[in-house]
Delta-aminolevulinic acid dehydratase
Amino acid sequence: MTDKTNPVDLITGHRRMRRNRKADWTRRMVQENRLTVDDLIWPIFVVPGSGIVEPIEAMPGVNRMSIDKAVEAAREAADLGIPALATFPNIEMSLRDETGSNSLAANNLINETTRAIKTAVPNIGVITDVALDPFTSHGHDGILRGGEIVNDETVAQIARAAVVQAEAGADIIAPSDMMDGRIGAIRAALDAAGHQDVGIMSYATKFASAFYGPYREAIGTGGLLKGDKKTYYIDPANGTEAMRDAALDVEEGADMLMVKPGLPYLDICWRMKESFGLPVFAYQVSGEYTMIKAAAANGWIDGERVMLETLLAFKRAGCDGILSYFAMDVARILAKRP
C-alpha cells in the first residue's frame, strides 16, 4: 500500500484539529458551550403613568414602559421562557432628593412594578436593585454629604430598602451601589424580616466604566450626576482588587455574583467562576448594546451574529447567565431553532 503520509502529518504528529470541524454534525457534536433562553435576564425600565411605551434614543429598540406595559412585556418574556427580569425605575424629579428617600416608600415605582408583575406573571423572577441613583437628586448611588458619598449611612438605608422590596415580592435583591459591607447588611436585614428565601445577586465587581452612558439617560440620571463614581466603583485597571471585592461579598452571604460591564471584563468572569464556584452573571451594559446596534444600523457588522457571538462569549468565560437588552430578540431567535 502506498504511504500517503503528508509532511503536515509529520509536523503535527498526525494530529489534525480540523477533523472535528469538517461537517456541521461534527461541529455540533463537539460544541463546548451553548446559549439557551435559560441564560437570559432581561433588564427593563419603568416610568410612572399608564399606556406608555417610550423609546430611549440612546438605546435603539429599548423602551421605557409604564407598569401596565411592563406587565405585558413580562408576560411575553415568560411565554418565551426567559427566567427573570431586572427592573429599573425612572421616577419623577419631584420625588428625588439628596438622600434618595423615596427608595424606602412601600408604594414607590419599583415596588409597584414588582407587585404588578408578580401578580400577573408569577412564574417569572423579578430582580430589583437597591442602589439609590434612581432616587437621588445628584445621581449618585449613595447618600451625598459634604461632597462625599457616605458609606455606612447609605448601607443602612439600602438594607431597609431591600426589605421593602422583598415585601413587595422581589425574588432577588441585586445591590449595585458598591458600598462596603452592603451584602452582609442586606442579608441580615432580610433574614431578620423573615425573608430568608430572597436571594442576593451581588454586583460583586462593578467598574468605573465609560460604558454606562445610555443607561443613565434611560433612568434620567445623566444630567444630574455631580462628579464621578470613582470613589466607590472599581478602577478598570484593577483585576486583583475586583477579586478581593468579590471575595468579601461571598463571605458576607452573596448567593450569586455579577460582573459589570460584561464583554471588556471576561477575564474577571472567568476568575470569579474559578475562584468561588458560585453562579456568575455578566451584565452586557447599555454601551455594549448600543455599539452593536449602531454598527449594525450602519451596515458595518451583522448585528444578529455579533449579538449571539457576544452572549456565547460570556458562556465560554464561565458565566451562568447574562443580563442583556438583547434578551427578547435572542429568545425569539432561539425559539425558532429546532
